[in-house]
């Protein structure tokens, strides 16, 4: 038993020495013509070794010198530059006349590819997956033995799948038609834009009729698959835009739809919510850095209250004197919007401010090879419908909602029954303004936050409310989602500018035909 153990240990030691980086290999990688260096580097990569990785990383960082044919790695230790032997890692003298190693662009590209290949044997599955993807995008026949060795040792299914893709991409340029045909069959399973590009490049130079027919069939299957991803992507972006329009228009559905106030400062109330989110983010970064990922949860009530308080002050100070005079209300709120924008410029500056996504809203969910749904968009869609549900319950099931509906439908009768109509007006306007603040909180996660933020949504918000039907929450939902979907469909067909024009023309024609919008008020309230 002891004899077997000794023999096994000697075998392991001999293998480690055989794979260790030698001074001759280091010299061949660092010194000489670029082509010779690349060949030596590719040979060294075939037997992965930590010292090879260290040398290549030092080359990539320009931290290698040569003195009298000897390779020296340069390290900064306690503010001083020290030398290191690339084969042993031991400290060595760093002569003053040591020459820097200069790498041209070709050499740098090969070094980056070699480092990516060496990551195939790292401990992190994510790093191995990234390395396999890099090898698949830049097929190189010299990497085939390395990929085969990685496949033999790899246990992670995702990494194995990507390695098989990289292997097939390499065999696609083989001299043997049978290998190219097998590679096409293997690549046809991976229905990605990168696979389509690889097959297209090979088709241009393919001479074998059987392989060419296989490539064309694979391309058709990939195109059909990717077309579904593109359609689903347009549908998702349309719903995402519709949810943003819904958030922006919900507050206006109360202030304009229910109260009849043409509030041109609605966009600035959205902007205040976004800046409130920015302030909360700064407070968390300064005082609660460990809980930074949850700053958005705290920012939502702050954004609501900030915009609601500004809206209440606006209603009590200006708008309550202008009920029944829509033109004067429009002019007054337009002036207030300019004041609010200038106030924000004075407090935060004219430049946009950065609002970061929490970690749980970063990244996306890859549904198809060409369709990734961003987490921040998914969260905003869910948030928009949560706010909609909350508003619908508040308007239909609470005492405040009953008072708002009563004052909206018949103010004199509501006042005769003891309802404080002035207070209800303030509460309703503050509620609509607060919902606008929630919209600003959500918009801060998908776009720039600046003094002009609200200007991009005020016209769209009015279009949504008017198209849906004044005073109708259901109409607001249908109009927002419909406009979002139609806008994105037309953008793919005619471009962003013409799509906007076509949507505007459609709304004008629709309102001419049906002035009351999608959903019309019924009963005595119409009069």
From TrEMBL:
GO biological process, one term: amino acid transport
One Pfam match: BPD_transp_2
Similarity comment: family membership: Belongs to the binding-protein-dependent transport system permease family. LivHM subfamily.
Keyword check for Cell membrane: yes
Record membrane topology: Multi-pass membrane protein
Molecular function via GO: transmembrane transporter activity
Signal peptide: 1-20
TM stretches of this protein: 234-257, 269-288, 294-314, 326-344, 375-395, 462-486, 492-511
UniProt entry keywords in alphabetical sequence: Amino-acid transport, Cell membrane, Membrane, Signal, Transmembrane, Transmembrane helix, Transport
Protein name per the record: Urea ABC transporter permease
GO CC terms, sorted: plasma membrane
Compartments where located: Cell membrane
Main localization category: membrane
InterPro entries per record: ABC_transp_permease, ABC_UrtB_bac, BCAA_transport_permease
Keyword Transport included in the entry's annotation: yes
